[in-house]
Task: structure prediction
Amino acid sequence: MILRADASGWRELVRVPVGGVGLDHDYGIEVDAAPDGIYRYQTRSDIRRCDGKPAYLFAEKFDGARFRRTSALPSSVPEAVPVLAARLDSARVAPPLVYQAHAASYEVGVGDAGGLVIPRELDDGRADTVWREELAASAGEGQFFTFEPRAGRAAARQLRIVPGNPASSATMKRFNRPRRIAVVTSRRGRPTPSICPSRSPAA
Result:
C-alpha cells in the first residue's frame, strides 16, 4: 500500500496487489519507489536487466491519486559514468556473431509482459526491420534491450547501432534517433554490453 502523512496522521492512498497474474502467472506485478516517484510495473522471470536494477515493463507512475501509464521511464543509470564517443561505421549492416537479442522491454501492439517475444529485429542484420516505441509523447526513454552471448562467457568487443529507420530517407527523417544510450553489464570492469536502456533520445 501507499501511505501519506498529513496533520491527522497516516492515510492510505492506494492498495496495490502484487505477484503473479492469471492462472499460469505469465507475468507479475511489482511496485518500486524511484527517486522521481512510485512506479507499478510488470515483471517476467526471463526478462531482466543485467545490473540487477528493476526491469520496468509496461510501467505506470503514481500521480498522487492513481497509477497512469508514463511515456518516459527512469533509466536508473548514474549520470557520472564513463562516456564513450560513437563513430560512424559505413560497413554494411550484418547480424552479430557472438551476442544475440534476448529481450526488449516493449513491443508495439503488445498489451502486457506475457506477450513479449524475442526482438529479432534487433539482430537480424536487416535495415528494413526496426524496434520502435509507439507512445506519442515518448522517444523511448527508459526502455531497454538485453543481449546475451550465444556461448559461455564470451566478451563483447563492439556495440553497433543503426539509428532511426533506414528503410528510406523519408523514414529516417520521421523516426526518432537516440542521442544517448546507456550500456550496463553483469560483470564489472569488462566491456560486455548486455542491456541498453535508452536515455534522452531525440530526433
User: Anything to note?
Assistant: Residues 2-69 form one domain. The helical segments are 169-174. Residues 15 and 32 are 14 Å apart (CA to CA).
